[in-house]
Amino acid sequence: MGAAQAEVLHPLLAALLRAFGERVAVPAWADPAVLARLLGGSRPPLECWLVRDVASGGLLLQAQPAGARQSPLGEALPVDAGGVRLQIEHQGTRSARWLSPADLPQALGALAERSQIRLDTSAESVVLAPVERPRGAAGWQCGGHGLALTGPRLGGVDARWEESALRAVAGSSIPPAAAPARAWQLAAEAVGPPPAGSPLRFGIDPEFGLWAEFTLRSEHGSATQRLRWIEPGSFRMGSPESEPERYSDEGPQHWVTLTRGFWLADTACPQALWQAVMGTNPSYFQGDPQRPVEQVSWHEVQGFLRAIEKLLPGCEAVLPTEAQWEYACRAGSETPFSFGGNITPEQVNYDGNRPYAGGAKGRYRAETVPVKSLPANAWGLYEMQGNVWEWCADGPRAYDERAQQDPTGPVSGDEGAPRAIRGGSWFGHAGWARSARRGADHPGGRDADLGFRLSLRSIEPGQVPAPVQGRPGRPAAPGGRSSGSAAARDEPLRTPTLWERVRDGFSFGKDKKR
Q: Which domain of life is it from (predicted)?
């Protein structure tokens, strides 16, 4: 209804209500705020409550607090002579009606996945819509004081948000009146934990859910690293025989269940963080402290992780296992890449002259890009594919068809045994960046396209950091770095000669990756 029509009809409607009271059928377009102003009156507003009936799952607007087998949804809603305008939107259709206090209690129905209920009084508007549990939330509940949410423990801290700290958004950031009828997402500003001086902060963003981050400062610089909580779950590890450019060590494809969640950095370790912790920057590609650190060996990364633990009390710093890495990289996908059946250089940093499975050629940057330069996967992890290969905690294991629970490759014994690397790099062709693509390198190896991504676990005071758990796997057939031919891949690892080290310093180890 236009503003001019409303200006004429609202006084007429108010006159009818004064004359005939609640016998008047008030149309749905009536504005409670305008009616309340026109009707006036000395009666105080009636306190009403939104409640959920536990038995039916339906919602009610009633004139008394929640009773037995009812759960309250927030605080009391004042309803005066202007009444309540009720709007229900479900799967693209919208219905509306006006309610007086005499119409209460009023059944509002149940909230479906794509529905929305809006209540307007003279004083406020309330929107009821499904809110999805944020990814990574350890627990949430709705009570008399509204919604409360807790996050997974890290550094001895359980982050918690109350109703006042949470906000709901649909899509990006739009006002409730214009929000589409679909599940909303929760968001919250960063909150610091109770312990004084802790570098940890926690927050929620609507797209990817919970995050934790720490900021470290030293005489060598400062850096902030954000992490995502990777929830426990099951996935199919490896690739199907039909996947183009597949290698035999990617099969047989088998189910893997990870029983414990873990915090994983949302980027490869940037040079700024390595510099702040270790006081050096061994990377070949420099100029931007947000480029990923490279030319770091697996053994050197272990030293970095021990240094991180001293700076983050209550945290154990580790590398993800090969199974954890692939699970996080896939982010629920079963396609060759987390982005789908193919990729472009706008999604992944690889050699665009060597596309995947007949795809179009594209840009070849011939260098690393700063972290978060390219799109994240569905779980908020950036550059899991391309840019730099990433060290894993364990060595490559031989696959079989049996379902596995928390599997690991070889993790003890010969310190020179190869360690798994994953993800492909700026130098490799697109097929090397596939989620299932496997590589390995000598733990002392360094290359200008080899970095890492850290993972954190929470430990209590006095608790000894746990070793990598799971069923140890058999070593895979000895092999060099992710290779482009079966013959090259099956060459045994060995310590490079001095000439090879000099050569690789100029060629970035290209011979080891082909």
A: Bacteria
Highest-pLDDT range among 86-100, 184-198, 203-217, 480-494: 203-217
Q: Are 135 and 153 in contact (CB under 8 A)?
A: no
Residue 303, CA atoms < 13 Å, CB-side half-sphere: 12
pLDDT of residue 500: 40
Beta-bridge mates of residue 48: 77
pLDDT per residue as tens digits for the range 158-174: 888 887 788 777 654 33
67-79 tens-digit pLDDT: 888 888 878 889 8
Examine the domain organization and report whether 305 and 360 are in the same domain: yes
Instruction: Say how many Å lie between the first and final Cα of the chain, rounded.
Output: 69
Provide the CATH number for the domain around residue 303. 3.90.1580.10
Look at residue 54 and tell me if it is in a domain: yes
Nearest of 127, 118, 75, 73 to residue 99 by alpha carbon: 118
Q: How many residues are listed for the chain in this entry?
A: 514
Q: Which residue has the tokens 């940093």?
A: 349
Q: How far apart are CA 157 and CA 169, in angstroms?
A: 27
Beta bridge partners of 456: 263, 317
Are residues 387 and 508 both part of a single domain?
Answer: yes
366 compared with 56, residue with greater pLDDT: 366
Q: Are residues 197 and 218 in the same domain?
A: no
Domain count, the chain: 3
Q: Cβ(389)–Cβ(509) under 8 Å?
A: no
**Mean pLDDT, residues 36-40 taken together:** 78
Residues 426 and 503 in one domain: yes
| CB neighbour burial string for 466-486, b if at least 16 within 10 angstroms, e if fewer | eebebebbebbeebbbbbbee
Calculate Rg over the CA atoms of the chain.
29
Is the pLDDT at 457 greater than 70? The verdict is yes
**H-type alpha helices, 252-368:** 271-278, 298-311, 322-330
The model's pTM is 0.79
What is the predicted pLDDT for the residue at 19? Answer: 65
pLDDT higher than 70, residue 59: yes
Residue 212 to residue 154: CA distance in whole angstroms: 8
Residue 197 included in any domain: yes
Question: Token pair of 164, please?
Answer: 């006042």
At which of 128, 158, 181 does a domain end? Answer: 128
Same domain, 156 and 281: no
The pLDDT of residue 127: 83
Kindly give, in sequence order, each residue whose CB lies less than 8 Å from that of residue 291, ignoring residues fewer than 6 positions away: 270, 271, 283, 285, 368, 369, 370, 371
Can you spell out the DSSP letters for 335-380?
Answer: SSBTTBS---TTTSBS-TTS-STTPPP-----S---TTSS-B-TTS
Grade residue 133 by pLDDT with cuts at 50, 70 and 90.
confident
8 Å CB contact between 202 and 150: no
Domain shared by 64 and 121, yes or no: yes
Q: Residue 255: inside a domain, yes or no?
A: no
